[in-house]
Predict the 3D structure of the following.
Amino acid sequence: MGNENAGYSQATTAEPFELVLQRDFAAPRGRVFAAWTDKGQLAAWWGPRQCPLTECELDLRPGGVFNFVMTGPDGSRHAFEGEFLEVKAPERLVFAGQISRLPESRVVTEIQFEEHGQGTRIKLRQTHALASEATAGARAGWTQSLDKLEEWLAGEGRRS
């Protein structure tokens, strides 16, 4: 087993960090919401390209927990765990989590799912309590994950 959370530094600043992204998908809102809330679908696209989701546990209800492990190309394991704060199908998800054993990495992620034309627009807002080296790659990581979600919905996801 690789080093859990290898490469994450605990260096932080007192400043919070907020990330806001918006993305349109050519799929119905219920279908996009399901891709975020079904662990089999989530495992197909979550995580940056070089660090896929290899373990996924979900208890999809307010107060329910999740545990994710992404595995890097060198075998390093990056665990992320937390709880769902709000689950309103197919409109909204809110969850809070942290890189395992690094409480200063706590982040709250809010995702709105809106009907948009023939598809779905998601609005993602992520608020990190403290900026750190782990937050520096948040935009690139989410962009890659959303690219993978778009590809999955256009291909394999349509058959599910």
